[in-house]
Amino acid sequence: MPQSTSGTGRTAAPAPTPLPTIAAGAARDWRDYALLLALACCWSSTYPLAKLALDTIPPITFISARSLIAAAFLFAILRMRGVRIPTDAKARKLFATQQLINSTFPFLIITWSQQYVPASNTVVLASTTPIFAFLITSLITRHEPATLLKLAGAILGLAGTVAIVGLDALRGFGSEIVAEIAILLATISFACATIFGLRLSDYDPMVVAAGSLLFGGLVLLPPSLIIDQPWTLHPTPQAIVATIVMGIVSSALGLMLFYMCLSRLGTLTTNAQGYLRIPIGVGLSVVLLGESVPSNLALGLLLVMAGVAAMTVPAERLKLR
Question: CA-CA distance, 7 to 253, in Å (whole number)?
Answer without folding.
Answer: 49
